[in-house]
Amino acid sequence: MKRLLCAIAVLAATWSQASAQQTLPTLPAASTPYSGAELIYCVQGGVSSKCVVSSLGGGIGTISNLTVTGSFIATGLVTNADLVNTGTTVNGVLCTLGSTCTVTTGASAATQSSPSNPATVSSGTAVMEGLAGAITPTGTGKVLLIVSGNLSNDTGAQSCFANLRYGTGTAPTHGAASTGTGLTPSITTSNVVSFPFTLNAVVTGLTLSTAIWFDVAVAASGGNCALGNIMMSAMEQ
Q1: Is the pLDDT of residue 123 over 80?
Q2: Cα–Cα nearest to 92, from 24, 159, 162, 139
């Protein structure tokens, strides 16, 4: 009879221990950071029990606002050098963790000019007109460029070709070889009629506080090509 009672007692203790373990998930959530008094579930030497944070060897330091992707191993205190720090680029400026970041958000730039009519072009290879339109982006580095005017050839059955180009550094002079980056397909006029034209394009990714020039390159199939009534506009967006 005594053996039976002992067996029943052992079963009851085992059931009670299992029940206690099953209720562990209902413990109150730990505070942040851990104070050392929170109950947690521990397994030591194959034996399961409840213990407190302060019972762990070495204790737990305070870590806040930390996101870890993949494996992460660090000994001692966690420093900025232990974290992945690729930084973020804002208006062309790289801002990194733990550094001072100065971002320029100046007002958008805009320019407009009406240069004198350049000399005619007879070259069969495109050359620059030397109009020297310019703008220095200060806010976004995204600029709309527009050149309008009239284009004509003084010889019947001959054509003129023109396209919009831009670049940095010294603006090209009239008659210089075509240079910079082309922005538009070439427009074509023919005969002796003076045709109105507009060339426009949006340029993005420009470096702030660095001036750019914009100009028109012209070529003639024969005769002489002439630009007139020129208006040049540049607006940062």
Answers
A1: yes
A2: 139
d(CA 146, CA 129): 15
**120 burial type by CB count under 10 A (0-12 exposed, 13-18 middle, 19+ buried):** middle
CB 97 within 8 A of CB 87: yes
Co-location of 61 and 132 in the same domain: no
Reported as a single tens digit per residue, the pLDDT across 180-216 is 999 988 888 887 888 999 999 999 999 999 999 999 9
174 and 228 share a domain? yes
Q: Is residue 227 part of a domain?
A: yes
Contact 220, 127 (CB under 8 A): no
Long-range contacts of 12-17 (CB under 8 A, 24+ apart): none
Residue 185 sits in a domain whose CATH number is 2.60.120.1310
Torsion, Cα of 43, 44, 48, 54 (10° steps):
-70
* Residue 124: half-sphere exposure toward Cβ, Cα within 13 Å: 3
Contact by Cβ (8 Å): 194, 151: yes
Residue 159 burial (CB count, 10 A): 16
* Pairing relationship of beta strands 127-128 and 133-135 according to DSSP bridges: unpaired
